[in-house]
Each structure stands twice: as C-alpha cells, then as structure tokens.
Amino acid sequence: MIATLKSPRLCASAVKSSWLRPVDIASVVAFRVAFGLLMAVAVARYFAHGWITDFFVTPRVFFPYPGLEWIVPLPGGWMYVLFAALGGLALCVAAGFHYRVSIALFAVGFTYAHLIDRTNYLNHYYLVSLLSALMVFLPLHRAGSLDVLRRPALRTTTVPAWMIGLLRFQLGVVYAFGAVAKLNPDWLLRAQPLRIWLGANADLSVLGPWLEYPWVAYACSYAGLLFDAAIVPLLVWRRSRAVTYAAVVVFHLLTALLFPIGLFPWLMIALTPIFFPPDWPRALARAFVAPVAPVSEPGGPAERAPAREGALTLREGLGAAVLAAYALVQLALPLRHLLYPGDLQWGEAGFRFAWQIMAMEKYGHASFRVRDAATGETWLINPAEQLTALQARMMATQPDMVRSFAEYIAADLRGRGHARVEVRGDVFASLNGRPHQRLIDPDVDLAHLAAGASPETWIVPLEEPNFAIVEPPVSAGPGRRTHRGVAGAPGHTDRHREEESG
Amino acid sequence: MLRDLAAVVIVPTYERFAAEADLLAAAAAQLDAAPEAAALLAAQSAWRRTRAVWKQSEAFAIGPAETLRSAAKIDWAPIRSERIESAIASTAELTGAHVENLGANLKGLLTIEYLLFDPVGGDVAVLTALADAPRRRRFALAVAENIRDHAVLLRDAWRPGAGDFAAELGDAGQGSAAFPTVKSAVDKLVNQMIFLSEDIADTQLLAALGTRNGGVPQPEALDAHRSENGLADLLDNLASIQSVYFGGYSGRQGASLSDVVDGISPGAAGVLSLALIRAMETASGIPQPLEQAVETDEELVARAQFRAKELMRRLEIDLVSVLGTTLRFNPSDGD
C-alpha cells in the first residue's frame, strides 16, 4: 500500500491538534511541587553550609560574565535576605501560592545570584534557572494549589500537551548533551575521569573494593554514556518506561553516593516522572490511596475546551515560533564550542551552558608576574591573597577567568598609580589524571590581550603525555630507601642529632 | 598505610617532641639558675632541637594539633617584642600557667628565640640582658614549661593507651569517628602537605628573596631569623612532607602514601618522589645561614624556591589528581 502524502496544511493541523491536545494537569502539578520543595532544600543548604557568606559576602573580587559586570552582590546582609526570600518563594511555588509572582521572582532572584560570579557556575544551577523561567509561563498552579483554593475559578484539570512536551524537552536536553559530553577520548579510551573518582571511593563498604579495578571504570564509563544517550527514548517508549525510571533512580542514587554533586541527582529523580503519562499521580493515588476521579469526568467551570483543529492562529503561530526559537537555542548553545579551536575541556571555550556534566577532573595552580612597563619594577601576585580559596582554585583551571583576573590586577594597579602594567601568568593544570602542564603561555601579557584574541595565541595546547617512570639522580647519604627506581629521600630527619654527635 | 603512618611517623615524632621540649625546659631552668655562657649555649641548642622536631611534625598537624590549637600555642608568628617586654616587666608571677593565659604572640618557640638570640649583639648581649634580669630568665623558663606542657598534651592525644588519636587515623573507614572514610583521612593529610609546601615555596622562600616587593631580599620575613634558623626550618618542613609521603622516620619504615600512589600510577609516584628529592637536595645546597644566603647566594636560594614550587604543584595538582582528593578549600557542590 502506498502511503498517502498529506498536504502541509493537514500536517500542520495534525501537529497543532497534537500539541494543543488537552492532557491531565496532574503530572505538571507534581513537577511544580517537587521543584519547589527541592529548591527550598537547595536554599536551606546555602544557609547550612555558609555558602552565602563564602560566595557572596567574603570575596573582594568577583568574576562576572562578560557584559554582565553590572550584576553585583547586594550590599551588607541583603544577600542573606535574598536567599531567605528565595526559600520562601520556593515553598510558595510548591504550594501554588501566588504562583506566577512566586516563580517569576524566584527565577529572577536565583538567576541573579548565580550570574554574579563565574566561580559558582554549576550545570544544575543553570537547569534550575531555565526551568524556573519556563515555569513562569506555564499554569502549573491551576490545580493542587492554594491559588485554586483561594480562587476556585482558576481550577482546571488539563493543560495543553505542549507544556509537558516543553518540560520533557528541557530535561531531555540535559541527558542528551550529557551523552555528547562523554564522546571524547579520555572518557572512552582512558575511562577518565571515572578512574580517579571511583578509585577515591575504594573504601566504601561492599562496592569499594571493586571500584579500584580499571575494568570497572571502563564499564561505568560506557554504561554512563549509554544511559545518557538512551534514557530519553526509553522513557518516552511506554513499554520500557517503568524499568527505565527504576534505572534513573538507581543511577542517580549511585552518583549521589559516590560524588559530591549536591542536589543534582535528587532533582533528576524528582523531575524525570514528567516523562510518565500525564495522569501518573492520579494513577498512583488510585493504586495506593483512594479512588481519584479521572480527568474524563466533568470538571470545574474553567475546564479547557478540546483542542481546535485547523490553521494556526496568529497567537498560536507566534507561540510556536517562540518555542521553536527556544528549542533551537537550547540545541545550538551547547555546541558552540565547535566554533572555537582547541580542546573543549582544556581551553573551556564554550564549556559553560553546554551540559558538560561530570565529564572531567581538572586541578590547577596559578600565580602572576607583574611588571610596571614604565619603571621596570616587578613583583609577584599570589591569587590566594585576593581571592577566596575556591575562586583561586576555579580560576586556575579556567582560562577565561585567568584572563579576567589578570585584567583585574592591571586595573587595580592602575588605580594605585601604575599607569601600565604587564601581567603574565604561571598557570599549570592537570586534566583527567595527566601530569600537570602549563595552561597559559607564560610570555603573553594577559592584561592587554586583544578583545577577540584567539585562544591559540595565549592558551598552551594540551599535551598528551602520561606520567613516565622517572629515575631520579642517585645521591649518597644516610636514610636512603629504594622505591621503584627512586633513590630515596635524604635522611634529614636526624640531621641535628648527627651534627651534635660530630 | 594510615596505621603505619601513625605508628612509624606521627607518634614517634610527637614522643620526641615532648622529650625535646622537656630538655628545653630543663635547659631554661639551668639558665635561670646560672646565666652563664655554657648554660646559654645549652639552652640555644635545646631550642634548636625542639624547634626541629616541631617543624618535622607540621606536615601532619591534623586532629589533636587542630583541636588543641597547638600551632598557635607553640609556634605563633610574628611575636610582639614590646608586649613580651611588658609581660616581663609586670608584677605577675611568671609560671607556665600564667603564660598559658597570655596571647599567642607572647609565647611559644619564637618568644624563647627572642630571649635567647640577639642577631646584633650576639650571645654577649643576651647574657648581659639575662644576667641582671631574673624575671627575664624566669619568663623564658615559664614559656619553655608552657611549650613542654603543650608538647605533652599533643603526645598524649596521639599515644595509644591515652588519647589514641593514632587509632582514629588507623581505623579510618572502619569505625573511626574522626575519619568515617579512608578518603577523609587521606584528604586531610594531603591538604596539610599542600599547605605546608605552599608555605615553604611562597611564604618562606619567596618572601625572604623579596620577589614580592621589588626584589629586595627580606631575611626578616623568615620566622626564626633572629637565630638564623631559617634554613633548618625549611629543611625540617621538607623532611616532614617526606616522612608523610614515604612513611619513614628515624630509620623506621612503614606502608606509605607513595605505595598507594605507585599502585595507582607508577609514573606519578616517580615524578612525585623526584620532586621531593629535588626540593630537599636544592634546599640542602643553600649555604648557612639562609638569612644571609638570600643576599649572597640569591641564585641558589631562587633555585631552591623553584624546586619547592615544583613540589607544591606536584602535590597540589598531580597527587590530588591521582588520589581524587577533595581539596580542603572546595566547599561547594560540583557537577
């Protein structure tokens, strides 16, 4: 049988029908409640760990995003007030209380806080900002909320299917690009950084002894890649959904056990049920609690009418265009690193906002040499004297932050009467277990790089050597010990006793 | 490895520290009784030996050293000489208990150094100052007794059968309250080694070379510059890092962190060992005293600083990478 080709108009109409089809609101209500409660926990963790002080009050220097230098911390104790407000707003979101205002203020406040300093960038904070922004435009309060209790006319039992599709798309992007992030030689051929991370947990009971085996790291690397790549299709397919969700829970529980990644596993466990049928909360309630009226029974006075077929209206067309543009940005932004030369994880051009989740382990150390071009005076800058320990550590591994700090040093010294200073960096980093090497060209004046300077002009390319067995020079003296070809440490410990005894 | 580190390195070091501190107090008592040249030399020698062992302990200044705030009570820098003089001139009874209540910058090893060493007037000036000032001698004795008391506290905190923090470390990940996982114990030690290596490279050597202030050497930036003990401090600190990494002390050897690293990455173990050896050898090549060498043999000192910096990077970057250490100053979540 030859399939009948439909006309574009008929296709558009079918798509419209599908996307505007009313579906049970229950799953998005559950999404809203879970999101709000988790955000309240996230805020509480900020207070509990002292992070508001550490990230926003203590630092004297911040690393704003380019073009967003005007975003600065609130003065005095107002950052604490902000976070307290975010906690309250999160609970309002969960409860569906003045929902639109609450989620909008939360989105703005949370995003503001995390745009202050690049030091604090985390992929799951980026996800929170995106989700909270999307939720402003979704009527997730029109059921199961205090708003409906206050204004029963708000109540509805359905939402258009595209809203659930949008939330599924956003979570799906995280998983999909999480898989893309793992398509690199270190992950696939060296099982790094998992070999480092799993080895560091070798003392866990039951699992621990297994984690030191290289084959386990390889198995976990490929399992992680397959998980991220397959999870969305398997969640969408009805027959595999339940088992797949069980795998989601197990996977994220393991990551929570093994790695210090905060709320991320719980966020994904709590929000992934959006891939279930829209009425899953009611089905769960029917199965375990009490009979719950399905959506097909007559609902409240504000129940949405069935989706209209036919051509898109202007409003619908604009809405579709906005959604399409949003989707395009979400798909293109993580791939922008393809426009830049060099290794993504090494040079980190296009690294942020690319869902490079748990994809690398990088350590670094930075110091700076300053020269007054007029007087020839030179001195050294230890970042630890001006940055917090976290800032210094993060800066040392991220070239754009190294450059920003060099520019800050120059600007600071200009303010102290040094009209022109040159700032050069001795910045070393290790990526995924490699021996450390220079990250930044030590001869480049970082404070005066051209605005669009190619990374190749100031970032040292990543070398590929592994540690070599090094035979140190053999020297005479007491207290020698032999260790895999190492001549041993000079026996300094008893030096004073030896001097006394003559 | 942790059990051996405690038994072979840490406990014996603190045992020796307490013993040397006791000898220092005895020497100070002898000087108090008879302020003569021989007694002064004996006290100075006892001070150097006590300080040496203290510096050899700084790479494992964890656990009791933190809770007892031993560094502040035994080796605070800088001291306040005018406040020391005021304390001596006061009418308070100068005992170890009295010293305990004084501020950190009036006691500890550097206060005794201030009283026993004069870089300008030499031993003659010191003896002159001590001979006619019984309260000055008594203050030195009181400070020495206070150091001894804290050394004993530290020793006992680690000693099996007493505080037994050695068992806490040895039982990491097996019921230890202080270290619920082996990783937490290793993290603690590695972070302390990094901290000390940074101090050696950046605080001790760089500051003394004056590379932070236009290249003018600053020997007074070294803590124990009055006694010209700067090089000894440096070498003892390096020895401390070596003892933690190689797991050996005073001729005894146990399972070590280097063995762990070797099991994960033989290449990394090799470069780390080499960095430690190079740092020690170049520092050992600096002619005494360091306080003069920063001006007369600047190139040698600069080379030692270079090697110390290399060691610091090897520890802070490569060792951390191999072990998957959580750096102490990384309080936030990751992803």
Account of the protein in words:
The complex is a heterodimer of chains A (502) and B (335). Chain A is of the alpha+beta class and 502 residues long. Chain A has 2 domains: 21-295 and 305-335, no CATH class; 361-457, no CATH class. Helix content of chain A is 49%, strand content 7%. The longest helix of chain A is centred in the N-terminal third of the chain and has 24 residues, at 26-49. The model of chain A is unreliable at 296-305 and 469-502 (pLDDT under 50). Chain B contains 16 helices and 2 strands. Chain B is an all-alpha fold. Chain B is globular and about 65 Å long. The longest helix of chain B has 32 residues, at 2-33.
Looking at this protein, list some descriptive labels:
heterodimer, A: 502 residues, alpha+beta, four-stranded antiparallel sheet, 19 helices, 7% strand, disordered C terminus, B: 335 residues, mainly alpha, A middle domain of Talin 1, 2 domains, two-stranded antiparallel ribbon, globular
